[in-house]
Design a protein that fits this description.
This protein has 207 residues and is an all-alpha fold. It has one domain. Helices cover 81% and strands 0% of the residues. The protein has ten helices and no strands. Helix 1 runs parallel beside helix 8, helix 2 packs antiparallel against helix 6 and helix 2 packs parallel to helix 8. The longest helix is centred in the C-terminal third of the chain and has 26 residues. The chain is globular. The model has no long low-confidence stretch (mean pLDDT 79).
């Protein structure tokens, strides 16, 4: 009974973190409304894997490692902040460029490239490791078995899969794509500003 309660607690905490607007959500939603559904799904898969890696790292004590070696955390955080801010600047620069019609798979955009973009966006935020470390440690019963910890990690990944699948399915519809094309300059400017703000906030915040 205690294990079931722990898993539900992890699911709730993971949902709050994963569903909160952030670089992950922006990356997946932007891919969904600007390109093909398969490309957005690849970005989402990268984001899901990134969340799984950070959650797994939390289980292995990487959060404690960051606490013991703040300079390591700071270096990773600043690198991630620079990457996220760079993504925001790129969006701002392209905001006024018309989006080309894409009726078939664009050979210049491989699924691997889309997947790598989603993974790198998530891995650029080391605070996720601290968030998961806090969430999993607070939800796990004392002396939790490796089996239970494995199920907790599975729950985190499942929540991420469900949420980002919904995002891709909803935002990749023709209506969403059409709306984006009409208001591209506003959407991309907003997304760019938000990503830039996330990057600057991460850059300026204290570990």
């Amino acid at each position: 009974m205690e294990s079931i309660h722990a898993l539900w607690t992890v699911a709730a905490i993971a949902a709050v973190g994963i569903m909160s607007p952030g670089p992950d959500f922006l990356a997946v939603s932007y891919a969904a409304i600007t390109g093909l559904r398969r490309d957005a799904a690849a970005v989402a898969a990268g984001v899901v894997l990134g969340n799984g890696i950070w959650a797994g790292a939390a289980l292995l004590g990487v959060g404690a490692l960051f606490a013991l070696f703040p300079s390591l955390f700071l270096a990773i955080k600043l690198s991630g902040a620079a990457y996220i801010a760079w993504l925001g600047i790129q969006l701002l620069r392209s905001a006024r460029t018309p989006l080309p019609e894409r009726t078939a798979a664009d050979p210049s955009l491989s699924l691997g490239t889309s997947f790598a973009k989603g993974l790198s966006t998530t891995m650029a935020n080391p605070k996720a490791a601290l968030y998961y470390a806090s969430a999993l440690s607070s939800a796990a019963p004392e002396n939790a078995s490796m089996l239970l910890l494995g199920w907790m990690l599975t729950v985190v990944v499942a929540v991420a899969v469900i949420w980002f699948s919904v995002v891709v399915l909803v935002l990749s519809t023709p209506r969403a794509s059409s709306a984006f094309r009409r208001f591209k300059v506003y959407f991309e400017s907003l997304f760019g500003v938000l990503l830039l703000a996330f990057g600057l906030k991460q850059f300026l915040s204290r570990a």
